[in-house]
Amino acid sequence: MPGLTAPSDYSKEPPRHPSLQINAKEPFNAEPNRLALIASYVTPSDFFYKRNHGPIPIVEDIDRYSVVISGLLEHSKQLFMKDIRKLPKYNVTATLQCAGNRRTAMSKTRTVKGVGWDVSAIGNAVWGGAKLADVLELVGIPKLTRITQFGGKHVEFVSIDKCKEENGGPYKASIPLSQAANPEADVLLAYEMNGEPLNRDHGYPLRVIVPGVIGARSVKWLEAINIIAEECQGFFMQKDYKMFPPSVNWDNIDWSTRRPQMDFPVQCVICSLEDVSTVKPGKVSLCKDVYMTSTINSCISVKISGYAASGGGRGIERVDVSVDGGKTWMEASRSQKKGIHYIADDANSDKWAWVLFEITADILHSTEIIAKAVDSAANVQPEKVEEIWNLRGILNTSWHRVKVQASHSNL
Q: Which domain of life is it from (predicted)?
């Protein structure tokens, strides 16, 4: 593509924040620590997870950079950045989450294949750009079209990003035309992130944002858009990011039996505590030890906070927290934007974005703290990771559990 190149080595990688947890150096894959992740509702680009498949592409001349739209159309069209910027600009607050988020925890049950993400392969940003539905109108595809007159049913996004999984070819993915041509789906050709131009790690100069869907479909460093009859046949659509039952292994897997994963299930993670944390008295209160005696004992106050999100534009109806291993539950408070009361699926809520939850609870002794969410369609998280284990380690949305050791000593 004129103006955009994909380096063959890693010598020209962009700078990154030193606090990131690096899960792979080449290609670079990293995530922030838990507390940095939930420090704000909108995730700064420095702390937004980095998911790459090869060296980061470099734009040599932004004026020459373009995207070609072709396929099952009457006429193909080449769009330059100036053409895209002429279209109405929309800002969409949307959470992206890698399908492999929390893979490390799933691997503890049985080893899985993939980048070892902890709980921070997720981020929430304000994406700015043109709606794909408006772009498609430029090539004669009206809004809300499900199939073109030439038989196009899917929209394929092709990146300049070269991957070993594609035998050195480009990364690519697709979504249904019915979603791409629907203005309410808010699919963007984005050139901004949090009010600034995209940086190289996040797709500069242009990327796709597909809200409510696993991050693998939000293709970065866009090179081409193809209108096609069937789903994209690329590796990451056909031989990856599919959900298999625990009984399937690498000897009996048949990729053709499952459709590519799109919407993300309901998810909830505690970020104020590590998997194993020791808490010491800060604010100490008196409470009754309901487990052992009826005497009054000193309790340690613990702040429990994190994020919850669901795919498909579904809101978060409830976040339940237990501080006794699941025997009893409390409801956490939920929030998005400051000063605006969060209600799931309300017009004032960001439908594609996560919510942050918080609750302060008293614990008497070492225990297991659990969080689980319910979305606005009453979808719930599975209790145990064993129930959803799969060989690629995707969609770990099991109840999130952390072990807390209570220390009553100030030493």
A: Eukaryota
